[in-house]
């Protein structure tokens, strides 16, 4: 639908007072998004900081790193891997040069899933690692050395520690 086709509808909304404001947005071109963001920001009440200013999110850096990697797995393997994997940050090592070394384990439930995550000659895990490392470096504002390992653990979804780590109660507890 063209913008000119929408203008009469927008004018009707304004005339009838259906909405306080109406925005025309192009998802393809990204047009109008800044206007919506400015409108929302202007209406947000001020409040206290809920966590330290230098903290990237309201979760630990270790958990944030695991969630970033998990997101990259799902984006890369959305059709091939069912939601039966988990990522755990096993080791977080601060380096003298200001960088951080992160060791993560990707748990899957079957050997076939492990092969999918690794990909042919390790190509899939390499891509996942590159995408995750790039985002983590942006989030943390420093160099990240990310090492990914894939392990089969049939019952990872029954591990109470996994749920507690992400702030959830274990089912049936």
What does this structure look like?
The termini are far apart. Strands 1-2-3 form a three-stranded mixed beta sheet. The protein is extended and about 60 Å long. The mean pLDDT is 86. The chain is of the alpha+beta class and 173 residues long. The chain is 43% helix and 16% strand. It folds into two domains: 3-43, no CATH class; 61-165, K homology (KH) domain (GMP Synthetase, Chain A, domain 3, 2-Layer Sandwich). The longest helix is centred in the C-terminal third of the chain and has 18 residues, at 123-140. It is built from six helices and three strands; from the N terminus they run αααββααβα.
Looking at this protein, list some descriptive labels.
GMP Synthetase, Chain A, domain 3, 2 domains, three-stranded mixed beta sheet, 43% helix, extended, single chain, alpha+beta, 6 helices, 173 residues
In short:
The chain is an alpha+beta fold and about 170 residues long. The protein has helices at about 5-15, 35-45, 60-75, 110-120, 125-140, 160-165; strands at about 85-95, 100-110, 145-150. A 3-stranded mixed sheet has the order 1-2-3.
Topology:
Layout: H1 3-16, H2 33-43, H3 61-77, E1 85-94, E2 100-108, H4 111-118, H5 123-140, E3 144-152, H6 160-165
Parallel strand pairs: 2-3
Antiparallel strand pairs: 1-2
Helix pairs in contact: 3-5
Instruction: Give the name of the CATH superfamily of the largest domain.
Output: K homology (KH) domain
| Number of H/I helices | 6
From the N-terminal CA to the C-terminal CA, the straight-line distance is 51 Å
Helix-strand pattern = HHHEEHHEH
CATH topology of the largest domain: GMP Synthetase, Chain A, domain 3
Low-pLDDT stretches: none
Kindly state the number of beta strands. 3
Strand order of the largest sheet: 1-2-3
């Amino acid at each position: 639908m063209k913008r000119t086709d929408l203008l009469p509808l927008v004018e009707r909304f304004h005339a009838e007072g259906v909405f306080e404001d109406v925005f025309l947005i192009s998802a393809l071109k990204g047009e109008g998004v800044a206007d919506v963001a400015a409108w929302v920001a202007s209406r947000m009440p001020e409040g206290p900081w809920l966590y330290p200013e230098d903290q990237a999110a309201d979760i630990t850096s270790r958990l944030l790193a695991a969630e970033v990697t998990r997101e990259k797995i799902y984006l890369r393997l959305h059709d091939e891997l069912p939601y039966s994997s988990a990522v755990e940050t096993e080791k977080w090592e601060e380096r003298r040069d200001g960088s951080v070394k992160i060791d993560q384990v990707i748990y899957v439930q079957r050997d076939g899933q492990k092969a999918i995550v690794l990909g042919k000659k390790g190509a899939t895990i390499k891509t996942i690692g590159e995408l995750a490392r790039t985002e983590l470096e942006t989030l943390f504002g420093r160099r990240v050395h990310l090492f990914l390992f894939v392990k089969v653990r049939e019952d990872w979804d029954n591990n109470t520690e996994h749920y507690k780590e992400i702030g959830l109660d274990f089912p049936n507890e």
